[in-house]
Amino acid sequence: MREGRTAPGRSSGVAVFSWALYDFANTIFSVGILTVYFPLWVSELSELEGFVVNAATAFSALLVLICAPLLGAVADLRQRRVPYLIVLTLICVGLTGAMGLLGLFGAGSVGPVGTLAVGVALFVAADLTYQSALVFYNALLPGVSAGRGMGRVSGYGIALGYVGAIFALVTLGAVATGNVPVRQVVSSLLPGVPPEASSSDTFLFVAALYLIFSLPAFFFVPDVSLTGEAGGARTTVGGAYRAVISTLRGIRGYTGMGTFLLATLLYTDAANTAVANMALYGRVVFGMEAGEITTLLLFSTVFAIVGSFGFGYLSDRAGPKRALMAVLWIWLVSIVLVTLAPGVWALFAAGPLVGVALGATWTVSRPMLVALSPPEKVGEFFGLFTFAGKVSAVLGPALTAALLYLLDDLDGLAYRISVGSLAIIMVGAIVLLARVPDARAGQRPGAEGDENGGAG
């Protein structure tokens, strides 16, 4: 076990900061690769960028669906998390760096088609390892928050994550536009490299920054055994999957967990789809330019930091269920406001609500899951939590794409309808969450059938 406690039962400030800083680090990857610059790079290589990016993302999500429960079971059976976090992060960093080298040298060696094929393969593998690392990162929360409030510590991580998003948008934007002349310098040293700036120029920076800001977590976050037993038990693939199947079969015995995971699937579906379509919604419905869209995203992200801190404290004081219910209502109001927005000003008015809700969602969700889970199953249920999130990552974009295709003749109205449909999904999440018991970390919810116990 790493040195991470200043006193028995209380984690050190260094451990908490190191854990939260990993959220800063992985958000740089999320913004730099998943959200902005990989899709833009694909658009430089192919006219089918929408199909290629969504197909690659869906395939990666499918792989995570398969792997996440297994990884969670491994974490619980071995009671070790940091070693897996380190290995998966290093692999992701290496794959991201390889994408950067491919962007620099690929076109001249294997041509645009070959570059695209190899780039997509590297992207899928990098996304898989990134998402898998999050299973072990999330499972470290109970140990690192000991004596400090799980909601509060979770909020620190989410808040630093959104600071990382702002840092990534500003820093990587300067690289992609050529204001930081990476491509020109490399081209002058290696004549075979084209001098024109490319979105892929950001990939090496993403890899380096992800690694640098992850290092404190590797060394200073305590790897606490939540069962009080020493880790290191032998784990087989078959044994891990059997543990997952056993948990799924007996999930009704964990009061409220099944209902919470279904609610998670719905609210992450609506939230992620809403955020992913903010830029496109602004451009298609209101004709916003790239600069306006970037300003809107940065403006909203500032409020995401506020939501992370504020709802972290609220979760500890009022309980994660009440805090999460408030967050879902904010999401519902935000979606309705965006759907009915009469002008760009209304998007900027809704932006703070979207930001607060986005930051608070992940801050409160993690303590809610831990409160419903017995200590020996935390990693496994975080794997299922990731599983639910990845199902929503497939279903949300698919539903939106289907609506936009069917309502293509309606132009901007089609986008209003597709975003408005997310309100229905969010209402479903609110109804399901109302059936989940008001559990707190360290207090197991009552047996099934208790008042407000909800269905498992």
Automatic annotation (TrEMBL):
Subcellular location: Cell membrane
Main location class: membrane
A Gene Ontology cellular-component term: plasma membrane
Coiled coil: none
MF-aspect GO terms: transmembrane transporter activity
Domain of life: Bacteria
Bilayer-crossing regions: 12-38, 50-72, 84-107, 113-137, 158-182, 202-221, 259-281, 293-314, 326-348, 384-407, 413-434
Topology in the lipid bilayer: Multi-pass membrane protein
InterPro entries associated with the record: Atg22-like, ATG22/LtaA_families, MFS_dom, MFS_trans_sf
Annotated keywords: Membrane, Transmembrane, Transmembrane helix, Transport
The UniProt record lists the keyword Transmembrane helix: yes
Pfam families linked: ATG22
Domain Major facilitator superfamily (MFS) profile: 209-456
Descriptive protein name: MFS transporter
